[in-house]
Amino acid sequence: MSNTFIRLDSEGAAAGFVPSHMTAKEDFTTDDKTELINNLFATEDEKLLCGVWECAPCREQIDAYPVHEMMSVISGSVTLTDPDGNSDTFTAGDVFFIPKGTPVVWEITERLRKFYMIAE
């Protein structure tokens, strides 16, 4: 990967999608179990990552979110629910952040495509 400017282009990035396996097969909520990723930038130690991720509908109980992550929804919908039952739904154009260690139920209700920036 180059150290020059990187255009975050959701359509162009889709051309570089490869299969991703972060979501357990049993967490998908439809017959579609497609999950794709294109890491557009990674530091040498991979403690900072930036790219595009796409996933079919799924629901995951995450006891402690594994990284700090800022996301911008390109298309689709994801609903996050905290342990107290408070939830928020994010759709195209929304930008949100989840701090590392946050307990959350992550539910994609419509195929989600997002930009992400992850820091460990």
Structural overview:
The protein has 120 residues and is mainly β. The protein has one domain (10-119): Sandwich (Jelly Rolls), CATH 2.60.120.10. Helix content is 4%, strand content 52%. It has one helix and eight strands. The chain has one helix at 10-14; strands spanning 18-19, 35-42, 48-55, 58-62, 68-81, 87-91, 95-98, 104-119. Strands 1, 2, 3, 4, 5, 6, 7 and 8 form an eight-stranded antiparallel beta sheet that branches. Strand 2 (35-42) and strand 3 (48-55) form a beta hairpin. The chain is globular and about 45 Å long. The two termini are 19 Å apart. The model has no long low-confidence stretch (mean pLDDT 93).
Topology (elements, then pairings):
Blueprint: H1 10-14, E1 18-19, E2 35-42, E3 48-55, E4 58-62, E5 68-81, E6 87-91, E7 95-98, E8 104-119
Antiparallel strand pairs: 1-2, 2-3, 3-8, 4-8, 5-6, 5-7, 5-8
Please bin the fraction of helical residues: under 10%
CATH fold annotation: Jelly Rolls
Distance between the termini: 19 Å
Query: What is the number of strand segments?
Result: 8
* Shape field: globular
DSSP strand content: over 45%
Q: Give the low-confidence spans.
A: none
What is the name of the CATH architecture?
Sandwich
Spatial extent as radius of gyration = 14 Å
- String of helices and strands: HEEEEEEEE
Please identify the structural class as seen in this structure: mainly beta
Q: CATH superfamily name?
A: Jelly Rolls
State the CATH class: Mainly Beta
Number of helices: 1
